[in-house]
Amino acid sequence: MIKKVFSFILMLICFDGFSQSQIEKEFVVVIFDIKRNDKLHPRDIYYWVAESNHVNEYLNFEFAPLFMSFFYPSNSYDDCCLGEATHFYSINKESKFEFADDLEKRQEHLKKFLKQNSKKIQLIKKNWGQNNLLNERVSIYATPITAEFCSCKILDEKHFDNVYLPFGEIRLNPGFWNSEFASYLKNRDFSNMYPNY
Question: What pTM did the predictor assign?
Answer without folding.
Answer: 0.84
